[in-house]
Amino acid sequence: MAREFQRGHKAKISDLTPGTDLYVGVQIAGQGLTFDISCFGLDANEQLSDDRYFIFFNQPKSPEESIQLLGAQAGDTESFRVTLDRIPANIHKLSFTATVDGAGQMSQVGPGYIRIVAGGEEVVRYAFNGSEFTTERAVMLGDFYLKDVWRFAAVGQGFDGGLDALLKNFGGEVAEEEPAAPQPQAAAPSFAPPAQAAAPAPAPSFGAPPAPQAPQPPQPAPSFGAPPAPAPPPTPQQQMHAAPTMAAPLAPQGGTVPPPAPAPAPYGQPPQQPQFGQIPGQVPPAAPYGQQPPGQYGQQAPAPYGQQPPGMQPPGMQPPGMPQGVPQGVPQAGAGLQAALQPYKETPTGQRWTPQNQQLMRVDLTMGGTPVLARQGSMVMYQGKVDFGYKGAGFAGRIVGNATGQEMQLMRCSGRGQVFLAEDGSHLHAIELQGDGICVSAENVLAFDESLQHEVRRIEGHGIPGGALFTMQFQGTGTVIVKTHGVPVVLPVTPTTFADCNAVVAWSAASQVIISSQVRLRRNAYPGHSGETVNLQFRGAPGNFIVVQPYEV
Amino acid sequence: MNQQLAGYAPTPVTARMENHGRTMLKVAMATGQDLYARTGSMVAYEGFIQYEPNPPAVRQIASQWITGEGAPIMKCSGDGLLYLADYGADVIVINLNNDSLSVNGTNVLAFDGHLTWGVERVKGLAKFAGQGLWNVCISGTGWVAITSRGTPIVVDCGRGEDETYVDPDALVAWSPNLKVKGKRSFKASSLIGRGSGEAYQMAFSGQGIVVVQPSEDSTDRLRVRN
Questions:
Q1: Chain A residues lying within 8 Å of B33, measured CB to CB
Q2: What predicted TM-score, i.e. pTM, was given to this entire model?
Q3: Assign residue A476 a region: left if phi > 0, alpha if psi is -120 to 50, beta otherwise?
Q4: What confidence tens digit (pLDDT) does each residue in A456-511 have?
Q5: Which domains, from first to last, does chain B contain?
Q6: How many domains does chain A have?
Q7: Preferred mutation among B154, B178, B194 to probe A, highest tally of A CBs within 10 A
Q8: Which residue of chain A comes nearest to B190, CA vs CA?
């Protein structure tokens, strides 16, 4: 009974059925995919000249109700009622399309079809499946087109770009200046009656630049190339001007989105204030849509603002005592204390150790619950109830202290709260150990989890300042914060890896350290120094590394 | 040689105060638009700029702050471009928009002359911190530049019921409406052998922000040189 169409098949509707009141059903589905199925009513040039004939979930029917969206029923994902003999004369083609909403591509769709039912009887069906498509994100399934009489064509043509590409396809030639916005240009004065007539239904005003003020937005139609501004409350109908003002240029998609103006911004009203000459801190007047000059205030304010001749500045806006004539531009972030300090805001995370910037580390003691041992004096700030206790470095630590004259004293931070650690603006690096070990030069340890096993080791050698180099070896699971002066270098351990014992920061515990007495450097630059120093040579299996800082303590 | 150095040429002036790199401040000066800057912070200037090392206004407003070395703030006036720096500390430019900010005295670099400002000694703490803690409270609408040794962090104080405790040596600035008090949080045992002010913190409570630098070096380098 029903005719099965293949891609490209065409037929007169009258050959299929004598009826003109047709039901068009589309079934399309795919694993994890959702689809927007819509109908474009196009003019003789295949352009969407009147966007009231773009029938989709936000605009479920055309003005004279010749095309209606019916929703899912009778096994169809989406269905339309098309009354051919009520379609206006300027509509020459109805194109039924399906677009992937969100991620996905058309090759993932399962078997689907578009069918026409007349009088309860299916008359034609074009079935497709995902193997006909590849990476397309939209597909034109079938067309009703007027060539002497109404005909139906099974199209099955995909579009890579999704609904945007489809819109561009249907309005692209007109929209060369504003490629992302076919609709406004299409709202030619001849076609768009005043808004009152256009709204028997709560019709979204598609000619207007803001996102459609859809009363039931499952998705606020970003598909339109309109800026994804939050939909302002419905504009009163009286303020809807006739078509010419609606043909306003849109901000190009992908560029800076103009700030959403408050709802009662009158469309098409000529700008009353000069857009330039803004005073810092003054809130720009709600720019009327469609009148935005390029480089408007809300976008990044380049130089011209600061260099206004004083006469252009409206009187009374400036704080008394601020003389004029010198640039008073605002920083790019905007005026005010909050804006200036915004880049330095605390970055909250759910993690125990959070680097706030290169030089500051935050530890959240409530995470994990184990206390933290930190070098005394490294706390710059804390919040919450944190207890700081004395923690000696133990017996070995006292040896360190005796040998170097600088005992490494630790403090034990316990309790609930966040502690911010930093020292001398040096760079901090969080090294997370998961069962492996690392040796860190004792001077470069800032803090570590108490859960880590640590022991102080001593590397003796002639020529090392203080007689020995002290390192702390960490083992277990936890985090060590290592500080370096400047940006360190991480070297893989090779048969010939040497490092100055003053500059080496850390090395993986599996590598072996040898005092290299053959290689000596003269250090005449330091008066009073013996002039000789000792290098450390590292040996180990591939995968071991050493960390060296650009600073010799 | 010029090509390599050309990247460091000043950028066109777009605002009264701008960063040139992280650590240098560029101020566009004009007649009648005076600037207060830390004495000794000028590194270069272009144009006709005059410096008044002991301005009477500072004597009035910050008489306590003035030591035998003279006022730590000088008045700059004239036309031209002024470059200021503080020994490589990071410079943060703030455009106050009817805000107020309390800045640690050593962290002030420059501020507009028409702003309202005053100097006060931080209560209860000055005797502990090494050189006495003065803070400059600046309010109004205009430009302020502060310094920080390292990238600072801004913390909202009004989070939870707990107070925020800051090492006085690391403190840069805070909202003046915060309540400040001193707190000794370290146990006595940890003080043995340590004579610094580390065991004392400043406790802030209320709604506002605290700016902290990642270094406890609060040495007033500009003053040390004088």
A1: 322-323, 325-326
A2: 0.56
A3: left
A4: 877 776 666 666 677 888 999 999 999 998 899 998 888 888 888 888 899 988 88
A5: 2-225 (3.60.160.10)
A6: 2
A7: B154
A8: A390
